[in-house]
Structure formats: C-alpha cells, structure tokens
Design brief:
heterodimer; A: alpha/beta; four-stranded antiparallel sheet; 7 helices; 10 strands; B: mainly alpha; MetI-like fold; 2 domains
C-alpha cells in the first residue's frame, strides 16, 4: 500500500448547538473526522444522535455553530454537484420518468452535456442499475428498491466525487438491501468514489466500509473509529466468516452502549 | 383488453347519469303524487320542452353563450392572477403570514354584497360583471395555490441543489412542475365558484345570460324558466368540470391517485 491517500472532507472540531425553549441543545460536540480519497466511512449510532446533522454539513445544507467542515481545505458553504446526496426517502422526482430523473442533473447548467453524450450517460446508468426496461415509467409505479436505484443512477450521472448517503437502505426489505449493497460495491469498484454513509445497521456498515465511526448518544461525539480490514471486492460470503462476526459483534456492543445512554437521557424528559 | 374499454366507458357514463335519473324521477313523483302542489313545481317534461323551444325559438342560446363567456373570462383572468400571486405567497413564508388573514377576509365577503361598490366604481357594463366573477375566482384560486405550495416537500429542492441546480433552475424545473397539479385544482375550484357567483354578477343590469334569465322569470313567477335556468347552470358547470378533470388526468398522469 502506498502512503495515506489525500484528505478530502474534514470535520474540524465541529459542534452544533440549537436554541430551544428549554435552553441550548448541543447536538454535535467537538467532533473531528477526516475522510480520505477513496475511503468508505460509515457513521453508526443511536437514532437522533446527530449523524444526519453531520451529513447535512458535508452536503452543504447546514453550517456548524462551532468548528469547520472543509473540502480540500476550503469551508463547505453550499451544496454542489461534486457531492452527490442520497436521501432517506430517495427524493425521486415524481413528475419525471425514470430516464428523465437520471438525466435531470445533466440538463443543469452546472453539468450540462450535449444531448448525445447525455443520452449515453443515462443509458449507461440505466443499464448498470437494471432500469432499462422501466426507462419510460413514472416513479409511482416503481417499488422502493427500484426508486432507490433511480436515485442512485441520478446521483451517479453527474459524476460526483463523493457520495453522501443518509440511511439509503433503511426502507428496503432484506433481500433487496443485500442486492443493493452488492450493486453499490460493484459500481464503486468501477467508478471509485469517496463515500460517507449513515446507517443503523452495523452489519451494513462493516460489510461496505473501509472505516466505521461509532457515534455516541447526543451530543454526538466519535466514540471509536474502527478500520475494517477486509479487502475488496467483498462478497456476501464474507458475512459468514468469524472475523466478520467478531468485528460486527464488537461494534454492535459499542452501539448498544450508546443506545442505552440515549434511552436513559430520554426518560426524565418524558 | 380492447373489449373492456368501451364497456367500462359505458359503465362509467351510466354511473354518472344514475343519480340524475333518480333525481328527476323523484322530482316527477313529488309532483304526480301531489306531495307538492303541481302549480308550484313544473313537470320535468314541461321544462325539457321549454328547453327545446327556448333553444330553437327563444333566447336560451344567447343566454347560455353570454353566461359561458362571462364565466370563462372571470375564471381565466382570476386564475391567471391567482397563480403567480399564490406562487409568491407560497414561496415566501413571511409574506404568507402577512397576507393570509387579508385573503381570508376578502374571500369571506359574498360577491353580492359588493355589487353596489362595483356599480359605483365600474358602472353597469360587461366589465362590472366580469369583475365580480374575477373577484370570486381569484380568492378561491389563490388560497388553493398557496396551500398546495406549502404542502410541497422540500426534499425535491434539496435534491436539485445537490445536483447543482441554480435558483432559476429550481424554479423552472422543480417548482413549476410541482405546481401544475395545484393550478389545475385551483382552476376547478374557481370554476365552481364562478358558476355559483354568476347569478349575482348578472344582477348588475344584465339583459342576457342565464342569471338574468332567472331574475326576469322570477318577476313573472315563471317557474318553468327558473327551473330551466338552474338546470342549465348546473349542467354547464358539471360539463366544464368534467372537461377540466379529463385534462388534469392527462397533464398530471405522474401523480399518485391518492388525492382523488
């Protein structure tokens, strides 16, 4: 292995504090995290702990109240096509057909392509996601897994360097989720992107990532940052290995501890 | 499959007609059984004959034409104004808080109460009548527009931003298509309100039009013509609404059927 890859996204001692009627609420507290070129970093932790807040900062929807999030050293202050975002509920445009959804970004001034090239790109991602037969369909006729593939194809079409994914697989059934995991790994293998994933599933995080960050109960801190040593390409058989099981169990234990803390926090308030 | 379509069309037409058939039947029975004094309730067949003779020999054709013209003018101008105004109110939340009570204040005023003012400021010509219809359709449509816009999920705007869209592109490629269904609903609501306001509008010294026809008939206790006028208004409103609904089904085929 050559030396460490370049630092791309940096959370530099960030914090997020909201004013609420009952006083200030710290959602994120002094978090530092570096995502290097080509890494796949997952954030796992109890729900409501501030993971999504961190993703919104990287996406450029939110600025921290303390510290700074930078991309190649420059503060992130707005969303941009270099950072593709996959939302929890996909956000597939209901008024556009599958192919027009995928072509959407390519018609914007920021990444406009001539029609022939645009058609080729759309074709390529429709094929990759297995959507060719549904290109003329409206999203209302598609299953959750297919909508997610549309969203992924749409994000990929503008060729972002980063993928920021907020629980993208949460709403899918187990089989579809496994298929989507492998599809994602395949695509990443050929396209080489840097990924930040937020998930509740420890197994998903370990299976996909190069690094897993366990986030604490609110306010979010990084409890532990764990390297996942398994080489790519990874296959589902990896899930059966004792090494995988041990790592999953260890991280699961960390997450459950934070979950217990979070529950304890909640009780007096209720 | 091909055989099923015409059958389904006939079935759907029959289903639409059924309640009206029942209504006319009840009307006829009320009269025949003597439950209502026959002098106070014309027979449906007499009204039908009256319709035919009015169309062939009388002024019914021109009355219908004048009313349809006025309703369309009021509706189109009213909605055309309501769409951009509703859009702005829906887009800028602070504006909405300021304007919302104002709109509800004006919306609640019955157009008939405004007639004296309309006559004072606009006279008794065609402009005055269309102004009343405009008033009614504008306030009905503008509310539907901005309430609908408030319900639009912000996620689509976020997605568009992450794909690199500028403000103008978000307006043109996201907000506009998302607003089309609300425009169509606004148009339909305004259409109903326009027809409902027609009689009031034609109180302003109208010589022709269905509303004028009804008012003239009432001075002579001409029940046949009154019933005829009411039925014509209802039928025209229904037909125009069905046309609009057809058009919406085409324009927003992408929409989930939840709202219907």
């Amino acid at each position: 292995m050559p030396g460490p890859a370049a630092e791309r996204i940096r959370f530099d001692r960030i914090s997020m504090r909201y004013a609420t009627p009952t006083g200030p609420l710290d959602v994120v507290d002094d978090v530092s995290l570096t995502i290097r070129q080509g890494e796949f970093v997952s954030l796992v932790g109890p729900s409501g702990c501030g993971k999504t807040t961190m993703m919104n900062m990287a996406a450029g929807f939110l600025r921290p109240t303390g510290g700074e999030v930078t991309l190649d050293g420059k503060p992130i202050d707005r969303p941009g096509p270099d950072r593709g975002v996959m939302f929890q509920d996909y956000g597939v445009f209901p008024w556009l057909t599958v192919e027009d959804n995928v072509a959407f970004g390519l018609k914007l001034a920021a990444n406009r392509k001539p029609p022939a090239e645009r058609a080729a790109i759309v074709e390529r991602y429709l094929r990759l996601m297995g959507l060719l037969d549904f290109r003329k369909a409206y999203p209302k006729t598609l299953s959750g897994g297919m909508r997610q593939r549309v969203a992924l194809a749409r994000a990929y079409a503008v060729n972002p360097e980063f993928l920021l994914m907020d629980e993208p697989f949460g709403a899918l059934d187990a089989q579809t989720r496994s298929a989507m995991h492998d599809l994602l790994l395949d695509v990443l293998h050929t396209e080489g992107k840097t990924v930040m994933l937020i998930t509740h599933s420890v197994e998903e995080a370990v299976y996909l990532s190069t690094k897993v960050a366990v986030i604490s109960a609110r306010p979010a801190r990084i409890r532990e940052l764990i390297d996942i040593p398994f080489p790519y390409p990874r296959r589902q058989t990896l899930l059966e290995t004792p090494e995988f099981g041990a790592l999953r169990a260890r991280i699961h234990g960390l997450v459950m501890r934070e979950y217990a803390v979070q529950e304890a926090q909640r009780r007096p308030a209720a | 499959m091909d055989d099923a379509r015409p059958t389904r069309l006939i079935a759907s037409a029959a289903l639409t007609a059924l309640p009206f058939v029942v209504l006319v039947l009840a009307w006829w029975l009320l009269r025949e059984t003597g439950l209502i004094d026959a002098r106070l309730l014309p027979s449906p067949f007499v009204v039908l004959a009256h319709f035919w003779s009015g169309l062939v020999h009388g002024d019914l054709g021109i009355n219908i034409l004048m009313s349809v013209e006025r309703v369309l003018a009021g509706l189109l101008i009213g909605t055309a104004a309501a769409v951009p105004v509703g859009f702005l109110i829906g887009w800028y939340h602070p504006v909405r808080r300021l304007i919302d009570p104002l709109i509800n204040f004006f919306r609640a005023l019955p157009p008939i109460a405004l007639i004296p003012l309309v006559i004072v400021y606009l006279g008794i010509g065609e402009v005055a009548k269309i102004a009343i219809l405009f008033y009614a359709s504008f306030f009905a449509a503008v509310i539907v527009m901005y309430e609908g816009m408030a319900a639009i999920s912000p996620i689509y705007i976020r997605v568009a931003r992450t794909l690199g869209a500028t403000d103008f592109e978000i307006f043109w490629r996201v907000m506009l298509p998302l607003t089309v269904p609300h425009m169509l609903v606004a148009l339909r609501v305004a259409l109903g309100v326009c027809w409902a306001t027609l009689v009031a509008a034609e109180l302003v010294a109208a010589q022709q039009g269905l509303g004028a026809m009804i008012q003239n008939a009432s001075s002579f206790f001409d029940l046949n013509t009154i019933y005829l006028g009411i039925i014509c208004i209802g039928t025209l409103a229904l037909l125009m609404d069905m046309t609009l609904r057809r058009l919406s089904a085409r324009l927003v085929a992408w929409q989930d059927k939840l709202g219907h």
